[in-house]
RNA sequence: GUCCCCAUCGUCUAGCCAGGUCCAGGACACCGGCCUUUCACGCCGGCGACACGAGUUCGAAUCUCGUUGGGGACGCCA
């Protein structure tokens, strides 16, 4: 295979959404797999809608996901002269012509056709203009667009072998003479994209199936320009629950990569999820490390059919596609704890929960604590929220935990401080000692150990559930544990009052 | 309306190209059980699909045709 060069060409008209991220991911994987290059090209020719903020957001999103590029970002607007030159060349070579039909006139014709449920497409009025007529209109200062002259002599088809879909054909009679240059002289996407891909020596165009219709037109442009046509791979689209294409506009933050970063997703977990939306390795494997995936990835195994992004809303646990959450959980509890620690550290710093000692003298404690509590968390955010009691004293109390495990046993008002006293008297505050003491005390009081254990859990962590209580107590430490136990009275006052 | 693409559990999918080993496998979700001081994890089990109809064949999820359904495109957006 000649040098593999692929590109990701977002138009900077909004944040990076998961569909775009998935396209970027597939391109990146393909490049890596073949020791090729990924080119990032910002298609900013739509000056009306392009923003710097969007460019920054896209780059930030790609970087967060770990999708790296080898060249760029290039900006399409920087190559306008070349686009114009190629358009002129096409006109000079007879592959394109000037069209003087007004936009209003065409809109009207289109509306009429649509109204009558008729097929519509440019009728070729200006294609038949003689050189003299064209010269006359130009001399008169009439504005014009440039249309590509689709060769329809003898019919024929434009076809290509798509890496995903197989052979795709389209009759030239179904391709209208499409516009390649606006009346203001600015070339359009169909042309710019091809000119840029030729200049960037793109070998494989991997993009969504929504571009399928563009491909036949663009192949015509490649040929007219005398360039080699690249390989194509049209990926299936990601649809919403109503089977409509997901978009920034209609779905909002739930489809933004940024949202997942904010909600505490592990970058590669999101990439892994996105990968599975339309690709499988052919076996039952679903979790891949970067290296494993680069090794396993092949374009031919991309699915042909569209997939549904099964997101939910307003569910505390499944705030997005449950599969995405489950993959994130998988990484959360299997990744090397140092890597998790780095993500938690970043989050803690934004929340004012970070203690520099966690990086130095209390490093071991910090890592062990993360190891202890990560089992039942869903995202990185949970360390600061559900796990707050391990790192700070201003943790919240779950109402259900207090009601079920504290208020139900009024005696705990005395028992908890008494337990604190006993803990203080312990020569060593370790697992065995704590467990022995708790069980002995329960026996003396004539209650089940669970009453003291769960009561202590609610008081010390504010939560209904958590890791083994003895480990929790030792981890949080004697001083903090006893102080919290002695404040049980306030809890009664707060929730009973 | 025209053109293009697609069609397996609720969702993501394996199997399809090279028809039998598939009364269709896995994952997520859901339900039940085990474990357990709690909740998770883990393990075990359950629920649950070849869109429909013809044809080819001894045999079809797999091949062919049709129907239906879904999606995309049809811009002087990208």
Supply database-style keywords.
single chain; 497 residues; mainly alpha; Rossmann fold; Arc Repressor Mutant, subunit A; 3-stranded parallel β-sheet; 3-stranded antiparallel β-sheet; RNA-binding
Describe this structure in words.
With 497 residues, the protein is mainly α. Among the domains are: 5-74 and 236-329, HUPs (Rossmann fold), CATH 3.40.50; 336-496, Arc Repressor Mutant, subunit A (Orthogonal Bundle), CATH 1.10.10.350. 47% of the residues lie in helices and 10% in strands. The strands form 5 sheets. Strands 1-2-3 form a 3-stranded parallel β-sheet. A 3-stranded antiparallel β-sheet has the order 4-5-8. Helix 3 crosses helix 6 (189-199) and helix 18 packs across helix 19 (449-461). The chain is elongated, with a radius of gyration of 32 Å. It binds one RNA strand of 78 nucleotides through helix 4, strand 7, helix 6, helix 7 and strand 12.
Question: How many β-strand stretches?
Answer: 12
- Per DSSP, what share of the residues sits in E-state strands of 2 or more residues? 5-15%
DSSP helix fraction: 40-55%
Look up the CATH topology of one domain: Rossmann fold
What is the rounded Rg? 32 Å
- Give me the secondary-structure category: mainly alpha
**What CATH architecture of one domain do you see?**
3-Layer(aba) Sandwich
- Terminal Cα separation, in Å? 76 Å
Q: Give the overall average pLDDT.
A: 93
CATH superfamily of one domain: HUPs
The CATH class of one domain? Alpha Beta
Strand order of the largest sheet: 1-2-3
**Low-confidence region ranges:** none
Task: Note the total helix count.
Answer: 22
